[in-house]
Amino acid sequence: MTTQRLGLIMNGITGRMGLNQHLIRSIIAIREQGGVKLSNGNRVMPDPLLVGRDAGKVEALAKRFNVTRWTTELDQALANADDTVFFDAATTQARPSLLAKAINTGKHIYCEKPIATTFEEALAVVKLANSRGVRHGTVQDKLFLPGLKKLAFLRDSGFFGRMLSVRGEFGYWVFEGDWQEAQRPSWNYRQEDGGGIILDMVCHWRYVLDNLFGEVESVVCIGSTDIPARWDEKGEKYRATADDSAYATFRLKGGVIAHINMSWVTRVYRDDLVTFQVDGTHGSAVAGLTDCMIQARQATPRPVWNPDEKRLHDFYADWQKLPENGTYDNGFKEQWEMFIRHVCEGAPYKYTLLEGAKGVQLAECALQSWEERRWVDVAPIEA
Fold first, then answer.
1. What is the pLDDT of residues 46-66, one digit of tens each?
2. Apex CA 172: angle with CA 250 and CA 209, to 5°?
C-alpha cells in the first residue's frame, strides 16, 4: 500500500461553512484517519493550502490544525502545478470568476453552492470546465444527511407505494444583530451582495427533489423581506434588501407535488430545523436531519373531523421510528471522499458543476415566478 499526496487549495475557509464543515469535519478529519482509501488499497492524503484575505486569521487556523501551508495570495497558489484541486467556499458573487481562473490553470474544481448568482454565469462555468477537461463537483450536502438517506431507503424499498406529495419545512429565527448577534453573515440579507433565501435554499431543494422524489418540471414561488433592517458584524445598522422567507410549490416528473416553506424569520415548533413529510399510497414518512418516523398504510388511524369535541387522540403515538440499522459519517466528509476518489482514480461521480447550475436555474425560475406571479417551467439544460 502506498500513500499519494493531493495538493488542495482551499479558499474561503475562515467562513462558517468553510471552517466547520469543509476544513475541520472533512479535510482535517480525513487526514486524521490516514487519508482516503482507493479501490486498489492505496491511500490519498490531502495536503491543504489555506487561502484567505486576513493573514492573521488564516495563519491562526493553520497553526491550530497543524496545517503547514497558508497564504493570502490566491494567484500565486493557482500558479503552483503541484496543487491540482481548487475548492471555494467564499462569497457567491465572486465564485464564477474564481472558478474560471482556477479552471484556466487546469485545476480540478470542487465548490460550495450556489455556484453563481445567475444561471448564465453558472452555465458558462460548466461549459468552461468541460472544455478544459477538468473534473468538477458541487457540494450537495443534504443528500448525505441520515434523515434523507433513510427517505431514499424507504423509496427504494417500495415503502411509499406511489408517492403523492412532499412537504418541507425549513428555517429558524436569525437574530437581527442589534441585541443578539446574528447567526448568519450580513451579506445574506443584501441582494446586491448575492444574498436572499431563494438563491441560497432553492439550490438545495433542486438536488433534494431531483434525487429523491422526481426531477423538477415547474415552480411557483413567492418571497418576502420580512425584517427591513438588520445590524452587521460591526454593529452597524443596514437595510435588508434580500428575501428572508419564501414559499414554493414544485411539480415533479411522475406527478409528485412538493411544497417547501423556507424562512429565516420563523420560530421552530417541529422536530428539527428542516423536516420533510412524504405521503404515498402505502405509507408516509417524516424525516429531519437524522431521524425518520414512518406510518404504514396498515397502521394508519381513522381520524374523524369533529370540531365540537376536544381532540384526545395522540396522533404522534401512531408513528414508528425507523431503526438505526446503519452508521452515518459526516455528510460533507463523505462527499469529499467521493470527489477525491473521482479525481484520483476516476471513480463515478454525479454531483458535478452541472448539478450546481441546475440549482441556480431553479432559483432563477423561482425568482421569476415571484416577480411575474405565475408558474414557470424548468427547461432541460444543454451543456
1. 999 999 999 999 999 999 999
2. 25
φ, ψ for residue 93, nearest 5 deg: -60, -40
Q: What sign has the CA pseudo-torsion 143, 147, 149, 151?
A: negative
Mean pLDDT computed over 316-326: 94
* pTM > 0.85: yes or no: yes
Please, are residues 227 and 244 in contact by the beta-carbon 8 Å criterion?
yes
Beta bridge partners of 245: 224, 263
> CATH code for 142-328+362-372?
3.30.360.10
Q: What pLDDT score does 351 carry? A: 97
What does the angle CA 123 – CA 364 – CA 257 come to, to the nearest 5 degrees?
115
User: How far is C-alpha 380 from the geometric centre of its chain's CA atoms?
Assistant: 21
CATH of 3-141+331-349, one of 3.90.700.10, 3.50.50.60, 3.40.50.720, 3.30.70.3400: 3.40.50.720
Could you give the residue range(s) of every CATH 3.30.360.10 domain in the chain?
Answer: 142-328+362-372
Give residue-wise pLDDT tens across range 347-374: 999 999 999 999 999 999 999 999 999 9
Cα separation, 15 vs 299, in Å, equals 46
Whether 185 and 264 have beta carbons less than 8 Å apart is answered as no
Q: Where in the chain is the domain with CATH 3.40.50.720?
A: 3-141+331-349
